[in-house]
Amino acid sequence: MANAVSVTFLTAAAGALGYCVYFDYQRRNNVEFRKSIYKKKRQAERKERLQREASKKEKTIILKRKLTESLTNKPLTTANKEQAFIEEVTAAEKLASVPGQEIDSAIHFYRALSVYPEPTAILEIYQKSVPAEIYELIMLLTAIFPPANITSLLGESNGSILETE
Question: Which regions span the lipid bilayer (predicted)?
């Protein structure tokens, strides 16, 4: 019994070693073989890049839809911003610990960012404390639909630049 297993293992090992020697020989001496390896590598990289781009577009569409649903179902409050901020951050932290709930967590963090008076300060805190994938989603959400406090901040900075010139 052990003899049959040994023979099978040695045969498989010899076959694998033989293929490695053949592959190395072809790689070193056959120009067409090298070109085909390079071409396959480029095709694989291109395919991976296209999949990443498609995934990013799909993620953006899902984020837009979920953000729109969230804002229509529960609009951002202008009164009692502190309480709204605490509620949103608490909900976001709970969802951040649940696998598969990253998008919902990012939406809650985004909603908290929208009611926070100093968005740049809270973004710095998010960057240090929130997992990287959720932070990336938050930044994508702010790019998709910038909160009013961020657009007013950008408007103020643009105005001050124009006034000094």
Answer: none
Task: Check residue 163 and give its pLDDT.
Answer: 34
Does 135 reside within a domain? yes
* Domain assignment present for 102: yes
CB 143 within 8 A of CB 150: no
Q: Is the pTM of this model over 0.85?
A: no
According to DSSP, residue 77 is labeled P
Q: Mean per-residue pLDDT for 123-148?
A: 86
CB 144 within 8 A of CB 64: yes
Q: Which of 134, 158, 77 is nearest to 123 (CA)?
A: 134
DSSP class of residue 100 equals: T
Of 84 and 37, the structure prediction assigns the larger pLDDT to 37
- What does the chain come to in residues? 165
Structural domain tally of the chain?
2
3-state SS class at 80:
coil
- Give the phi and the psi of residue 101 in degrees, each rounded to 5: -110, 25
Q: Are residues 109 and 154 in the same domain?
A: yes
Residue 60 lies in a domain: no
Q: Spell out the residues 6+ positions from residue 122 whose beta carbon is closer than 8 angstroms to its own.
A: 112, 113, 116
pLDDT at 165 over 50: no
